[in-house]
Description:
alpha/beta; TIM Barrel; 8-stranded parallel barrel; two-stranded antiparallel ribbon; 10 strands; 13% strand; globular
Amino acid sequence: MSEALTIDVPFMLGMMRLREREELHKPEAMADWIEARLDQGLYWFDHADIYGDRQGETLFGNALRARPALAQRVHIVTKGGIVTPARDTSRHGVKHYDSSPEYLSQSIDESLKRLGVERLDHFLLHRPDPLMDTEATGEALDRAIASGKVAAVGVSNFFPEQWRRLQACMSNTLASHQLQLSLAHPEPLFDGLFDAVLADGLNPLAWSPLGGGTVFEDVLGQSLERLAADYDASSSGLALAWLRALPGHPVPVIGTLRESRIDELLAGASLTLDRPTWFALLEEARGERVA
């Protein structure tokens, strides 16, 4: 059975925008950036093979190869299963999902090679595939764990019955679910998705935890700014504290690579909200009173 590592960090560092940061394209510069984050206690990094059309994993791996000692200190999540139009070899050139054993096995091997590590701490199926053969896919994921290539597997953007069908075909336990969750997108708290994640023992990882910046807009943004002053915190720190207050303590996956922004978010990592403040923010986010 797989033994997933505990993700005990205030947030995970998302690598989706790495290709856009040209100053980090040099391996030594990226290695310096990674080492600085590790020294801050931030050692979980979130990737996907489609980020930057594989360039995110490649740039990160180049840095680890330039400074091999870092590979022993980082913990990596990566995702696979999405085929972009440019990568579709059929005549359609269409974005689609591929959860076939052959595709996933190749995806894992190629991510390991690009990242320059011997094992992925978490491998997630990026999107649910309507054509998934759950028995074949489950066996492929179990084999990846048995081979030592992957420590644990999970899912992203799945509905409960989708991951439960997969889980029923696996001997290893699904470890994590990466879902969209924030003050800007609190729906999973009310449609049963978040409760299902917790009930099934999946670690919740929250992507877009600041709603791509939309939490700072309009009435919600004004409320965050006002309440942040009361807590001597930043608006973003308050928004992440709201998220971490939930049962299961969802781990936010932040998208910024800016050092000053990371420092700001880290400064608010110990912030705790009282219940009235939490619900006041929920009211502003939903635009309606608590029933």
